[in-house]
């Protein structure tokens, strides 16, 4: 039986550009990096306050990367969506959709390098 979620993997072609996006734009922390036994370059990232990690993988031996629309995305909570949007746009990553009102909060989306979509969630004030 499964105990808990450990990580999600995204394969990329430009490892350093992707890591820069997740650390400089989103503020994730690089936890570790290494090369696997089969030659994959792996970097593990973590959001402050989360136990789960994101594994960014560069492995040219797997062939081209095709990111399908609406296939998958990561979602992160932010304190202030407007402030985050200003910060991200200043780094060259404007919002790709939103913000939209939801049940007491707001959501928006931003595109990571190589086409992966990231959802940003601002929860309603209690």
Task: Please provide a written account of the structure.
It is a single chain. The radius of gyration is 15 Å and the shape is globular. Strand 7 and strand 8 form a beta hairpin. The strands form 2 sheets. A 4-stranded mixed beta sheet has the order 1-4-3-2, covered by helices on one side. The model has no long low-confidence stretch (mean pLDDT 93). By secondary structure, the chain is an alpha/beta fold. The protein contains 2 helices and 8 strands.
What is the CATH topology assignment of the largest domain? 2,3-Dihydroxybiphenyl 1,2-Dioxygenase, domain 1
- Radius of gyration, in Å, reads 15 Å
Percent range for β-strand residues? 35-45%
The first-level CATH class of the largest domain is given as: Alpha Beta
- Per CATH, the superfamily of the largest domain is 2,3-Dihydroxybiphenyl 1,2-Dioxygenase, domain 1
What is the mean predicted local confidence, pLDDT? 93
For the largest beta-sheet, the strand count, sense and barrel status come to:
4 strands, mixed
H/I helix tally: 2
Strand order of the largest sheet: 1-4-3-2
Order of helices and strands: EHEEEEHEEE
Estimate the global geometry from the Cα principal axes.
globular
Any guess at the CATH architecture of the largest domain? Roll
Q: How many domains would you count in the coordinates?
A: 2
Uncertain runs: none
**Could you estimate the helical fraction of the residues in percent?**
10-25%
Based on secondary structure, the structural category is alpha/beta
What is the strand tally? 8
Distance between the termini: 36 Å
């Amino acid at each position: 039986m499964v105990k808990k979620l450990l990580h999600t993997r995204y394969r990329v072609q430009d490892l350093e550009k992707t890591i820069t996006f997740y650390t400089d734009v989103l503020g994730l922390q690089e936890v570790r990096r290494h090369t696997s036994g089969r030659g994959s370059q792996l970097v593990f990232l973590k959001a402050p306050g989360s136990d789960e990690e994101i594994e960014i993988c560069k492995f040219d031996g797997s062939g081209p990367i095709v990111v399908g629309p609406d296939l998958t995305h990561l979602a992160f909570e932010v304190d202030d969506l407007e402030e985050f949007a200003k910060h991200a746009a200043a780094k060259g990553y404007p919002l790709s959709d939103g913000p939209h009102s939801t049940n007491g909060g707001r959501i928006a989306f931003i595109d990571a390098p190589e086409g992966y979509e990231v959802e940003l969630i601002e929860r309603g004030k209690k």
